């Protein structure tokens, strides 16, 4: 069958439970082969069924297998987390838009508007008009409703900067009451989503404690969310024989287009799990920042091999994939000496 979103999920599971051999055809394969039958871009359900049967007969399919329950639970909760993260980003963008219109000078005082003092300010004094007539002590008193250590030299400095910026603000003042109500509703929803994400992360930590290979990935230096995303996207890593299989699963394998004397650019195929691809990239960035081996490999790629930083990161994704599959298959933890013996000895 061709998995169109979630619609084939229940049927595939039912067939597998009945002992049937279920295989999947990539929708891209169906799309590119539908003109082979009649040299026409026309599309219909009977034609699609014929094309799917044809490509299966030629071996262009992959096996459908259900993961263990713990991996299915992890995949479900990570999918849920991605939904709420998307909503959180959308709300944050709405709040930033509000500030750009009503108080554009705000970011000269608070670079990060999500810090505790900034959140207290936006709850008590959301507009410049609320701040302009206040004193430093009155602002600090308002902060104490939402934070324990509101004063001090830092508090007095920030309060003075806020008042000064509020007095010279060029923000929009029309329909201010309605705008402040809108900001209040945005804050309520934002805080609710933050609480949801915190609960989800705790549940993820509990689930990872049931998966022994999570500790092996943690030994590399990966964080909880990256480990959960990799395991939810790739499933049981023991089913892979080489890191290249994990890269292909994520669509990180290379694709080249050449013809005669023309040599096309080598690009990523991106035919795989987009979420797994994203978190392998983020995991590599994390390791370049906090793992000495990956930091040294990245430095060598950029300074000695003259790679661009972006190219080096994608090269290190391949290194990470090989390390992940290697330590899981062998039942080991991460060893800097095995990962990069030359740089380890030099250090």
TrEMBL record:
<dbReference type="GO" id="GO:0004803">
    <property type="term" value="F:transposase activity"/>
</dbReference>
<dbReference type="Pfam" id="PF01548">
    <property type="entry name" value="DEDD_Tnp_IS110"/>
</dbReference>
<dbReference type="InterPro" id="IPR047650">
    <property type="entry name" value="Transpos_IS110"/>
</dbReference>
<protein>
    <submittedName>
        <fullName>Transposase</fullName>
    </submittedName>
</protein>
<feature type="domain" description="Transposase IS116/IS110/IS902 C-terminal">
    <location>
        <begin position="221"/>
        <end position="298"/>
    </location>
</feature>
<dbReference type="GO" id="GO:0006313">
    <property type="term" value="P:DNA transposition"/>
</dbReference>
<dbReference type="Pfam" id="PF02371">
    <property type="entry name" value="Transposase_20"/>
</dbReference>
<dbReference type="InterPro" id="IPR003346">
    <property type="entry name" value="Transposase_20"/>
</dbReference>
<feature type="domain" description="Transposase IS110-like N-terminal">
    <location>
        <begin position="1"/>
        <end position="104"/>
    </location>
</feature>
<dbReference type="InterPro" id="IPR002525">
    <property type="entry name" value="Transp_IS110-like_N"/>
</dbReference>
<dbReference type="GO" id="GO:0003677">
    <property type="term" value="F:DNA binding"/>
</dbReference>
